Amino acid sequence: MPESTYKINLPWTEEHEAFCYQHHIPPAAKTLWQWLMRQGEIAAEIEPDLKQFRAWLTKVRGKPYAHNYLKKMFDILVSSGVLQVIKQFSWNSFKLVLRPLSWLKPPKKKREKNLQNNNSSYTLQASNQQSPDGGNIQQQHSYSSINQEVLSESGIHFDDTVTEVLERPTWEVKLALILFQIRGGLNKVDNPEGFIRTCLRCRWWESHHNYWAICKKLSNATKPDDPVCAFDLETFFDDE
């Protein structure tokens, strides 16, 4: 395929270039990202084969990336949020979603809220170091106890030491469980604990695709722009 045709058909913008610069994505990972864009629709599930990518590289540059180097570039795209791996079949074969840049930017309201929460956490941390009542620690223990109960009701169990899951706000854990159920629950998810852990870490519910799936399950909406979908997920669970 001529290089000019490749560039014309590629949905790549200056915004993508800026993202690569801001997140220190190396040229090799960028090349992989661009190739993945051509394997299916953005934001839809695709099943690319990295062996095909290596074969394509051989044609355009004379030689492919080394196996381990290619895996490293793939992992960079995953850690930066560009790729959401749904299932891995082998070292080179995956089911994944290629996220559009809009999914990688939290809404302004969310960013401001996160900033406020971060500032509050620093204040609480300093306050707890001077205060004997340990209020923040008590809140974490409260989250932990409630979250263990919520997870156990769905047949998922975490040891007390798994604080990255148990000390998350309960509304986030409930959203992770809803996505777990949407994916088939215990009958289809091979590693439930791993699913919940990754879902919380990557905040899967913030993607447009998953948000719509959650809204559909919670409100019986029939289309993404249905007015019944216009609610805040955190507030929805806080009101329970």
Summarize the structure.
The protein has 240 residues and is mainly alpha-helical.
Beta-strand content bin: 5-15%
Shape: elongated
The major pleated sheet works out as:
3 strands, antiparallel
Structural class: mainly alpha
Please write the string of helix (H) and strand (E) elements: HHHEHHEEHHHHHHH
Domain tally: 2
Mean pLDDT: 78
Q: Flag low-confidence runs.
A: 1-8, 108-112, 120-138
Helical fraction: 55-70%
Whole-Å distance between the termini? 56 Å
- Count of helix runs: 12
Strand order of the largest sheet: 1-3-2
Radius of gyration (Å): 21 Å
Number of strands: 3
Features:
240 residues; mainly alpha; Arc Repressor Mutant, subunit A; 2 domains; three-stranded antiparallel sheet; 3 strands; elongated
Descriptive overview:
This protein has 240 residues and is mainly α. It is built from twelve helices and three strands. It folds into two domains: 14-103, Arc Repressor Mutant, subunit A (Orthogonal Bundle); 143-239, no CATH class. The chain has helices at residues 3-9, 14-22, 27-37, 50-61, 67-79, 108-130, 135-153, 163-166, 170-182, 192-202, 208-219, 233-238, and strands at residues 45-46, 83-88, 94-98. A hairpin with a 5-residue loop joins strand 2 and strand 3 (94-98). The termini are far apart. The model is unreliable at 1-8, 108-112 and 120-138 (pLDDT under 50).
How does the SSE layout of this entry go?
Layout: H1 3-9, H2 14-22, H3 27-37, E1 45-46, H4 50-61, H5 67-79, E2 83-88, E3 94-98, H6 108-130, H7 135-153, H8 163-166, H9 170-182, H10 192-202, H11 208-219, H12 233-238
